[in-house]
Amino acid sequence: MNNSTMQLNSGFDAAGNLQAGLVLLSATTITGDEVFNLQDENLGKIQDIMLDITEGKIRYAVLSSGGFLGMGDHLFAVPWRALTLDKENHRFLLDVDLDRLKNAPGFEKDQWPNMADPTWNSTVDSYYTR
To answer: Which of 54, 55, 73, 80 is the most buried (most CB within 10 A)?
Structure first.
């Protein structure tokens, strides 16, 4: 793949700016993106995207946080609407401080919750709603 194709697929132009009019990004361009809070603290990286196929939308970004080189990471399902794209810095913002994130409902990478469970959804969604 040539450089111009990579830039087109990533959604950013040669100057690193989000392309005008672009409203769609592939999941692979988001996976691995860093997530910072409003205090400019690194909260982790997006590990996965969870799609609600009945509604046809992204439901959660799975945030990997707290580990070192992928070891010991704790995972958090963050409602997609709680994230804001920081175009200038090529990352996402989440209005949560580190202590609040540490206490958020989370899970281990080998014990994913049933994300279709309405009770679980309600707990997670209400945690990030202020």
So the answer is: 73
